[in-house]
Amino acid sequence: MIIKTEAIVLKRFSYSDTSIIARCFTQEHGKISIMVRGAKRKKNNHTSFLQPINHLDLIYHFKSKRDIQIASKISYHKLWSKFQNNLKHISYGLALMEITDKAITSHDSHPELFSELVSVLHKMDSQGHKLNIIFWYYEMKMLTLLGFKPDLNGNDFLYNGYNNPRGSSNSLNILKSLQTHSLESMPNLTVSAQDRKTVGGYLSGNLRYHFDFNGPLHSFDFMRKLKL
User: Residue 215 contacts by C-beta under 8 Å, 6 or more apart in sequence?
Assistant: First the structure.
């Protein structure tokens, strides 16, 4: 079967001397792994397509008994400018890829989450400030769409080891705004250092609890080193 779909590259691996395997989040079929044979050959020039964060149009041959599908054609659906050379944007983009990769399972379709991820990448690429709010919005949306909407009016965080959403003066208001507004209607939020620590800790705590992230989140560690 020939499948044509939009895809976001989550991660890539070398396979043999010439080929690359990419793990992608697709609009139609959720997370899949694809192989591009000969991608590293000079005349092929597919290596640049398979960088994490890239938004692609992908055609591949689907076989249900095969864990890794074979790509037949790849092209850019959208080229991001800031994710190519801005370290801050790259750091946030890689963090989006890592949490998405860890939260969803293979071949489990989440078209609404895919659309949110594309919207978030587009929003980040179009502005240079308040990327943390856009990132938190995606974390909140991911939890909600995958069935783990935080109860901000309850006390479940007391029992599940989450950080307290009321840990700073404005943190609960920020979290409620993230939960009730779209990206386009998000109010102009003022975020203090303590708000940043509380909101970020609360959302990442929920993600770790519900999706059982094993080991460190390398992109989060990198962002902390950059003090983002």
Answer: none
